[in-house]
Design brief:
heterodimer; A: 202 residues; alpha/beta; Pyruvate-ferredoxin Oxidoreductase, domain 3; 6-stranded mixed beta sheet; 6 helices; B: alpha/beta; Rossmann fold
Chain lengths: 202, 393
């Protein structure tokens, strides 16, 4: 799309990919842009593959179809790589971000020859260490923002804290863990982006 | 002051319901409209509105209770989708024929089978001949705006009919998008207090609601209902004019998007209209004279006005998000053709069935349809006059 970006999320029912897409719409709205965040419902059950989408634009968003040529793809569950064509239509100028303990080099062979940028982040590990449970969507949300550069880190962190304070008004104990998950993931991705720049200039 | 927000279509309608603060809301949950009674109950529990919420055991009961409350003199509403609306069928006719101005928030979803939870217009179209006014929305903004306009239309003395405010299930009901909200006080002032002239709980003026009528009277009653529906056209436009003063946003029976010099026009309803507008912009950049007629008010059906709007184009694609199993076309296809014929507008039309049970409708699909219309007119290519979009064979 002109004057905007499109993001496609792949996850499994129950992992929070839909929630992550809605939260991304929420924080991007705070930058004054037009946003769209919506899920695509297949068979609704825990563990079934689901897709969610974001459009973020300085123009009014009118299109109400799914996204077939995304700028970014976020894969919340690595096990989808064997069954879902996650890079379908993904722009070469864009990037894919995958939740996996594997390195970028290990994962590249499983992406149907995708030629764009590839980022990996161990969202499970970050989530378990910061939240005590595997909720990969918070780290993957931070990763999506870091790679797509939708908004600066400081603004994102500030808005997310406000958002979590609203969302978890009855469970304030989980807010700090979620914030740590966001910050740690952002740091991991910033490092990867920096390393990429270094290798390009070398 | 307008409030800049982002919310889903269900949130937007629930927000409007809170602002209007009607008297009674009986409801039974069904996907994808479940969030509406859920959010309204939360507003009530938080003391942000004082609507009497009645949890009932079925949609047959929710519509019955809404009818009872409205007949008693209370401003009433309910929300539903799909099979829920189908279960209300008998009551829908009662609400309209008893001239009860209640409002139904319909979140459009397909009907079985195969069973599916996603959007098409089968539910609303199934209720098209029940005597209700039906208004459709392209996005969360329109769903919100239409709901605020619903009671002033329904309760007008020239109308006295129930109104269905429709939006596309999931596509708009569950999509978070930007929206401009109005403040509470001006919305309440716009909608006003409900002061029914006649109602059951008025001991000073006893009336009967829903009595038996002998054959000698029924036809006149039906004609009166038809006249009320016909009257609602001008009331819908008057309310839209008043709403424009309040919000700055413009509404009519339909919206004409770049149709003034268009050779090819797509007539479409609901969320896919936005997608079609994008296709129009893309094709206009390539010099194609195309436009979109987005139908907002399906009942009353503005046949004459549509015929006027299509009069100068070479061909029109009439888009139905519903099959009607008459072997001749979808509901819009059949009614638009009849309207064109009666108004002696002899343009070519092609009736496309698209998007059933949430099948995606893309900018590419819309561009393909415009190209097919052009091929038919310019090259004389024979195409099926009634066909499905992107059907697997």
């Amino acid at each position: 799309m002109k004057n905007g970006i499109e993001i496609r999320w792949h996850g499994r029912g129950g992992q929070g990919a839909k929630t992550a897409a809605l939260l991304l719409a929420d924080v991007a709205f705070k930058t004054g842009r037009n946003v769209q965040g919506f899920p695509e419902y297949g068979p609704e059950r825990m563990g079934a593959p689901i897709t969610a989408y974001n459009r973020i634009s300085s123009d009014k968003i009118r299109v109400h179809s799914n996204i077939y040529h995304p700028d970014y793809v976020v894969v919340v569950d690595e096990t989808l790589l064997g069954s879902v064509d996650v890079t379908a239509g993904l722009k070469k100028t864009g990037a894919i971000i995958i939740n996996t303990p594997k390195s970028k080099e290990e994962i590249e062979g499983h992406l149907n020859g995708y030629e764009g940028r590839v980022f990996t982040v161990d969202a499970r590990k970050i989530s378990v260490e910061t939240l005590g449970k595997n909720f990969p969507n918070s780290p993957m949300l931070a990763a999506a923002v870091a790679v797509s550069e939708i908004m600066p880190k400081e603004k994102f962190i500030k808005e997310m804290r406000a958002s979590y304070q609203h969302k978890f008004a009855k469970k304030p104990e989980v807010i700090d863990g979620n914030m740590k998950a966001l910050e740690r993931t952002f740091a991991v991705l910033e490092e990867a982006i920096e390393a990429e720049k270094m290798s390009l200039s070398a | 002051m307008a409030i800049k927000e982002r919310m889903s279509g269900n949130e937007a309608v629930s927000y409007a319901i809170r602002q209007v603060n009607p008297d009674v809301m009986p409801a039974f949950p069904i996907t994808p409209s479940t969030e509406i009674p859920q959010m309204v109950s939360t507003y009530i529990a938080n003391g942000e509105m004082d609507t009497e919420f009645i949890p009932v055991e079925s949609e047959h009961s929710s519509m019955s209770a809404a009818i009872g409350a409205e007949a008693a003199g209370a401003r009433s509403l309910t929300a539903t989708s799909s099979a829920g609306l189908a279960l209300m069928w008998e009551e829908l006719l009662l609400a309209a024929s008893n001239r009860l101005p209640l409002v139904l928030a319909l979140v459009n979803r397909t009907l079985s089978g195969p069973i599916n939870i996603n959007c098409d217009h089968s539910d609303g179209m199934g209720a098209r001949d029940t005597g209700w006014i039906q208004i459709y929305a392209e996005n969360n903004q329109e769903a919100y705006d239409n709901f605020i306009q619903a009671y002033p239309i329904a309760e007008d003395a020239r109308v006295h009919l129930p109104v269905m405010i429709c939006q596309d299930g999931f596509i708009t009901s569950h999509a978070v998008e930007n929206i401009m909200l109005l403040e509470d006080a001006p919305v309440r002032e716009f909608v006003g207090e409900y002061e029914p002239e006649e109602y059951l709980l008025n001991p000073g003026k006893p009336i009967a609601v829903g009595p038996y009528a002998v054959s000698n009277y029924v036809m006149e009653a039906k004609k009166n209902q038809e006249i009320a529906l016909e009257n609602s056209k001008e009331v819908i436009l008057e309310v839209a004019e008043r709403f424009k003063k309040l919000s700055g946003r413009e509404y009519g029976l339909f919206e004409e998007y770049r149709t003034e010099d268009a050779d090819y026009i797509m007539l479409i309803m609901g969320s896919a209209a936005g997608t079609a507008k994008q296709a129009v912009d893309d094709l206009r950049e390539r010099g194609k004279k195309v436009g979109v007629l987005k139908l907002r008010v399906f009942r009353p059906f503005p046949a004459e006005e549509i015929a006027g709007a299509l009069r100068n184009c070479k061909a029109a694609a009439i888009m139905d998000r519903c099959e009607s199993y008459n072997g001749n076309g979808g509901p819009l296809g059949s009614e638009v053709d009849a309207g064109l014929f009666r108004n002696k507008v002899m343009i070519e039309t092609v009736n496309y069935i698209y998007g059933l049970a949430g099948r995606d409708f893309t900018v590419g699909d819309a561009c393909g349809i415009f190209a097919e219309l052009e091929d038919m007119v310019v090259n004389g290519k024979e195409i099926e006059q009634y066909q499905y979009v992107r059907l697997r064979k």
